[in-house]
Specification:
- The chain is elongated.
- By secondary structure, the chain is α/β, with parallel strands linked by helices.
- The strands form 2 sheets. Strands 1-5-6-7 form a 4-stranded mixed sheet, covered by helices on one side. The protein has a 3-stranded parallel sheet with strand order 2-3-4, with helices on both faces.
- Helix content is 31%, strand content 21%.
- The chain folds into 2 domains: 8-24 and 104-166, no CATH class; 28-91, no CATH class.
- Strand 5, helix 5 (136-147) and strand 6 form a beta-alpha-beta unit.
Length: 167
């Protein structure tokens, strides 16, 4: 009589944490202010303020917005702050930077607000492969948070994980 095959992974206390499960749906927008600069390089305050005032901000309803300037212009902080003051009432999140910076900010908020008490003293594996754009920084932030809670932290898949931390 053949020995019964036992799935040790299914029977273990190992908990898989998939960052992709927390990916918020919503359009990501890169908003470039270079078109509001004189010749793409010089910020003229009056013209810039007019552009901000006349822009249809409602088109960003429920979107995630990354503000940038696609030229080498020197943009004062108040210019970005003025844009944020207008777009934030419509958007879900606004950052100055790239789309990757935006994703990092989104995940930072998510990870900071996650209740992970159910992972206390458990071995946790952070799932590695995702189909959505989960930034590297999200894995770093999650690892730091899990170290304070979990018994051990690994990365990858249950059948081939990389140990990261063990208390």
């Amino acid at each position: 009589m053949a020995d019964e095959i036992v799935n040790r992974i299914a029977n273990s206390k190992l908990v898989t944490f998939d960052l992709e499960d927390h990916y918020p749906e919503g359009k990501r927008i890169q908003f470039d202010i270079k078109d509001w600069l004189y010749e793409g390089l010089v910020l003229r305050e009056k013209d810039f303020r007019t552009s901000v005032k006349e822009h249809n901000w409602s088109q960003y309803e429920g979107h995630f917005v990354a503000l940038t300037c696609g030229t080498d212009a020197i943009i004062p902080a108040w210019a970005y702050m003025l844009v944020v003051a207008s777009v934030e009432s419509y958007s879900r999140n606004v950052v100055v930077g790239s789309l990757e910076d935006l994703e990092t900010s989104i995940y930072q908020d998510i990870i900071n607000n996650l209740d992970m008490s159910y992972l206390k003293d458990k071995p946790v594996i952070i799932k590695g492969c995702t189909n959505k754009p989960v930034p590297l920084n999200a894995y770093i932030q999650l690892t730091s948070k899990l170290k304070t809670i979990a018994k051990s932290v690994m990365y990858g898949e249950a059948c081939s994980s990389v140990p990261l931390y063990k208390r």
